[in-house]
Amino acid sequence: MSDNELRYGWYLAGTKLFIDVYTPELTEGELSAVVDKLDPHKLTITLKGKKHILDLCGGVSDPCVNIKSSKAEISLQVSSKVAFTHLLKSEKEAAKKYDKAEKYRSMDVAGEDDAPSDLMAVIRNIYQNGSDDTKRAMLKSYQESCGTVLSTNWAEVSAGTVAPQLPE
Predict the structure, then answer these.
(1) With b meaning 16 or more CB within 10 Å and e meaning fewer, what string describes 6-28?
(2) Which structural domains are found in the chain, ordered by start?
(3) How many Cβ atoms are within 10 Å of 32's Cβ, its own excluded?
(4) What share of the chain is helix, strand, coil (3-state, %, to 5)?
(5) Per-residue pLDDT averaged across 15-39, rounded?
(6) Any idea where the SGS domain is (predicted)?
(7) For a Cys-Cys bond, which of 42, 92, 138, 155 suits 36, CB 3.0-4.6 Å?
(8) How far is the CA of 92 from the CAs of 53, 55, 57, 153, in angstroms?
(9) Per-residue model confidence (pLDDT) at position 156
């Protein structure tokens, strides 16, 4: 851990937000907490002369610092009706991006687990085991008919354009 990092934990109890700053051998006056008057989402924690600015997910006010033996507890009044699922805005945005990526990742895998239907297995088998003329006929008939005709007869398909046929 570098000297610039701030070790902390947090929890919400009703309308109070508690941030525990973990620093051993802390004395009175070595830690202060100030809420920005223009932006109540910004909390500046000064620890042993070093400033740490936290961009919180919601607005806060009335910081109160309580020094204990192994930590300092900062209590804040929550001034907005924001559910603090994350303490910092950056954590919340990262979680949203991660959730979105997971959603699309699961969608990518969804089709891979499906077993091929019997019809698809038959068509795949005909194509894989067929002659070059059979493969050519299947591709040409399927493409020209916009997917409505699938023929294996190259003599018939090569004679002209394959017209789309709607199901009956």
Answers:
(1) eebebeeeeeebebbbebeebee
(2) 8-87 (2.60.40.790), 118-157 (no CATH)
(3) 14
(4) 30, 30, 40
(5) 89
(6) 87-168
(7) 42
(8) 17, 11, 8, 59
(9) 92
Q: Residue 157: which H helix or E strand, with range?
A: helix 154-157
For 159, phi then psi, to 5°, come to -70, -25
**Alpha carbons 61 and 79: distance in angstroms, whole number:** 6
In single-letter form, the type of residue at position 135 comes to K
Q: Which of the four pLDDT bands, split at 50, 70 and 90, describes residue 75? A: very high
